[in-house]
Amino acid sequence: MMAITTLGQFIIEKQADFPYAKGELSRLLRDIGIAAKLVNREVNKAGLADILGQQGDTNIQGEVQQKLDVYADMQFINALKVGGECCYVASEEHEEGVDLSMNTVSEKAKYIVCIDPLDGSSNIDSNVSIGTIFSIYRRLYTDRPIQQEEILQVGRKQVAAGYIIYGSSTMLVYTTGCGVNGFTLDPSIGEFCLSHPEMKIAPTGSLYSINEGNYSKFPQAVKQYIKYCQEIDPATNRPYTSRYIGSMVADIHRNLIKGGIFIYPETSNHPNGKLRLMYECNPMAFIVEQAGGKASTGNNAILDIQPRLLHQRVPIVIGSRQMVEEVERLYLNFPVPFSVCYE
Ligand code: AHM
Ligand code: MG
């Protein structure tokens, strides 16, 4: 029988690789893992409990909040508050971040967490996979109240990032900058168990994921790439297969396993795209790059964008390295026609 490694054991083993680590990041990851299990429990019984449907409030993006969004946000923030390792949470559900540094337990906390507690929530009512995305930064100063520049750090400064996918099984996938590992929740023991060690994305693949309904609003480079995906060329395994769930975590997770590309570009009516830099694009970019893939706006590496706003949107092209590079080549031929300003 194969020995099981739980997420908790794995985190502790990895901490031993860093002799000066004091365990704070390990505890923070553990806290996120615990909250994920609580959210998973509610997601799983969503059709049974009176938790499906909308809460009646809108979040700062003007989107209607689903009840589960609110529940997930509360669980993650509570776990981070009680855990004491995080001093500030930037969440998709809050216009301003949540400052935890006033709590005695977190006043010396060294970490900042950016989180989308429940991404793809428009899929909840139809039982389609949804996810949580998180990103962790180290504080720059510990002798003053939290500064804006500490919250808006460039993606390359992430110390850890991960996602949880609530799908046909529930998985937690994360990186601390030394590769990517995936854990599947075993409901019989209530533990995330190492199931996908050292995940790697294939250099190329045959899946492309994009909301083609927006085709007429896409920039020329993306239109050309879609044509390229649909052309017949047995040498490059084309035509590719189109797969789009409409849940970023699920789309990127599938492409990570099978090889492929996910694109949410700028459009004529949304010149900065839809997805948010701080808690959607940066963490997914860190994970995919750590797995050997690439993440770009079409012109620039996602991880090199200097954030200016907490809820800033950016176009994203992410996945198998060679596929992303093909899109970048097309962007060189067709410069962005819209006024992309990454805000
Ligand atoms: P959300 O944060 O409001 O859930 O929106 C993000 C989601 C992503 O998961 C997904 O890739 C995208 O929105 C789908 O958008 P669209 O319906 O425009 O294709
Ligand atoms: Mg989201």
UniProtKB/TrEMBL annotation:
UniProt cofactor(s): Mg(2+)
Keyword field contains Iron: no
Record: residues binding Mg(2+) 1: 92, 116, 118
Pfam families on file: FBPase, FBPase_C
Residue ranges of every copy of the Fructose-1-6-bisphosphatase class I N-terminal domain listed in the record: 6-197
Keywords: Carbohydrate metabolism, Cytoplasm, Hydrolase, Magnesium, Metal-binding
Binding site for Mg(2+) 2: 116, 119, 280
Protein localization: Cytoplasm
Pathway: Carbohydrate biosynthesis
Enzyme Commission number, as recorded: 3.1.3.11
Cofactor, free-text remark: Binds 2 magnesium ions per subunit.
Main location: cytoplasm
Keyword Cytoplasm: yes
Listed GO CC annotations: cytosol
Substrates-to-products reaction catalysed: beta-D-fructose 1,6-bisphosphate + H2O = beta-D-fructose 6-phosphate + phosphate
Ligand binding (substrate): 119-122, 211, 244, 274
Biological process annotations from GO: fructose 1,6-bisphosphate metabolic process; fructose 6-phosphate metabolic process; fructose metabolic process; gluconeogenesis; sucrose biosynthetic process
GO molecular function, one term: fructose 1,6-bisphosphate 1-phosphatase activity
InterPro entries: FBPase_C_dom, FBPase_class-1, FBPase_N, FBPtase
Domain Fructose-1-6-bisphosphatase class 1 C-terminal: 201-331
Annotated family: Belongs to the FBPase class 1 family.
Complexes and interactors: Homotetramer.
Stated name of the protein: Fructose-1,6-bisphosphatase class 1
Gene: fbp
